[in-house]
Design goal:
about 170 residues, mainly alpha, rod-shaped
Amino acid sequence: MRSFEAAGLSRNQAEALTRTVTAVVTAAKEESSGAFVTKGALHTALLERDARLAGFRAEVGKAAELQAAALTRDTERLGAALDRVRAELRAEVDKATAAQRLDLNLERARLRDDLQALRDKGAEMEIKVDKETSALRALMESTKNEMIKYSLGVLLTLSTIGLGVARMLGMGR
C-alpha cells in the first residue's frame, strides 16, 4: 500500500488497489491450490479476474480523471490569481509613476515660478538702479547748472564791483 501511495495514488485509492490486488492474489492462490482445474472453473475465474481488472482499470481511470480535473481547476485558479496580482501590481506601478510625474510637474512649476520671481525682482532692481542713476544725473546736472549760475553771478558781481571801483577811481582823478 505504501508503494502505491509513493507512486502518487491517494490513501483511499491505494487501499482499494491493495484490496483488489489482494483479492486477485487470493483468488489466484485458491485456483492454483488444486492440482487440476476444470476448464469451466478456469474460464469462470478468468472472467471474474477480467471483470475485477476492468473495474480496477475503470476506478484508476476515474481517479486519474478526477485528479486531472482538480489539477486543471487549481491551475486555472492560480492563473486567475496571478493575473489579478499582475493587474494590481500594474495599477500600483501606474499610480506610483503618475504620482512621480505629478511631483515632477509641481516641482517644475514651482521652479518656473521661482525663476520668474527672480526675473521680476531683477527687473525691479534694474528699474530702481536706472531711476536712481537718472536722479543722480539730474541732480548733477542741476548742481552743475547752479554752480555755473553762481559762478557767473560771482563773476558778474566782481566785474560790476571792479568796474564800479574803476569808475570811482577814474572819477576821482
